[in-house]
Amino acid sequence: MAKRILTILLCAALVFSLGACGEQKKSPESENTSWADFVQVMTAFKERGDQTSEMGLPVESEFFYSYAGASVSAFRYALEYVLWLKGEGSTLAEFTADSPYCGWETIAEINYSSPYTSYFEGMLYDFQGMNEEAAKAVAMASIMPMFPEEGLDFSYIRTMEIKELYEIRDSLLNLEKQIYSAYEPEITGREWDRYLFDSEYLNANALIAMKNDNNEEALFYAKQSLKADPYDAVSWRAAASCAAAAGRYELLGGYIDEGLILFPEDEALSALKQVLINVLEGTEVK
Questions:
Q1: Residue 131 CB: number of other CB atoms within 10 A?
Q2: What angle do CA 16, 183, 243 make, to 5 degrees?
Q3: How far is Cα 107 from Cα 118, in angstroms, rounded to an integer?
Q4: pLDDT tens for residues 57-86?
């Protein structure tokens, strides 16, 4: 199976939908990104998460759920930030207290491969005149594989009426509720490494950690690699190897089985499966 087939197809759909001109109130500029199309695309991601979960593909379903979750939460938090800048609430923390996930680092950890966290972070820096910080964040978003080729422009939310902002925020909160009722992200509070969206970087770090006998750290990187790109056979091999090194045999079996569904002719995964069978049967591996 070609690398990232489904990811590329989804990216194409995202570019087609989000690159189109939306008929937005208070946003007459022709190149704006439609928030309604964004909601539609992320709803499709959530539904694909439901489908793959029902098919017994937990890693693939986590990719869809977590990508949608991070993206939607980032947009909702950006809207709340704008509302707060317009005078809503006393402090930002108090104003967002009832929302599912808040703070750019926390939202990024839901799925580091979503470019929307960095994009909206940069947009809010720009709104506050923090030009250097804005440029860095948006530049980082723009190099992520899932960043739409035609770019993003949600800057019109800055000039929207408060009532309209609340309406969009509530629409996003409803979608978040649907996503997080099906999927609960694992939030550790880990410092945000801005390159955790790159599966090659993640797999390389997993290998380094495993060579240093830091197997749990290696497994962290391997898990993130699968969340970034579950359509890369290398990521499945790395995850299976890290699970084996950590002695997590149930997890290892899950990685092997799901990986072989996506890559049925992968020799490395097939070999690992045979090793696991031998270990579980208590036979000597030659």
A1: 10
A2: 100
A3: 10
A4: 999 999 999 999 999 999 999 999 999 999
Instruction: Say which residue the tokens 């005078």 belong to.
Output: 87
Residue 115 vs residues 36, 61, 62, 104: alpha-carbon distances, Å = 18, 19, 17, 12
Contacts from 51-58 at CB under 8 Å and sequence distance 24+? 53/182, 57/258, 57/261, 58/254, 58/258
Contact 82, 158 (CB under 8 A): yes
Q: What is the pLDDT of residues 187-243, one digit of tens each?
A: 999 999 999 999 999 999 999 999 999 999 999 999 999 999 999 999 999 999 999
Residue 203: other Cβ atoms inside 10 A = 26
CA distances from 3 to 120, 123, 242 (A): 29, 32, 21
**Closest listed residue to residue 18, CA positions, set 44, 48, 40:** 40
One-character DSSP codes across 228-256: H-TT-HHHHHHHHHHHHHTT-HHHHHHHH
Read off the amino acid at residue 84.
W
What is the distance between the alpha carbons of residues 138 and 135, in angstroms, rounded to a whole number? 5
Kindly tell me the burial class for residue 201, based on how many C-beta atoms sit within 10 Å of its own C-beta (0-12, 13-18, 19 or more): middle
Cβ neighbours of residue 206 closer than 8 Å, sequence gap 6 or more: 218, 219, 221, 222, 225, 238, 239, 242
**267: which residues sit within 8 A by CB, 6+ positions away?**
none
Reported pTM:
0.87
* C-alpha span between 118 and 146 (Å, rounded): 12
Q: How far apart are CA 154 and CA 160, in angstroms?
A: 11
What sign for the dihedral angle of Cα 92, 123, 152, 60? Answer: negative
pLDDT tens track for 1-18: 333 434 433 443 443 333
The single-letter DSSP state of residue 158 is G
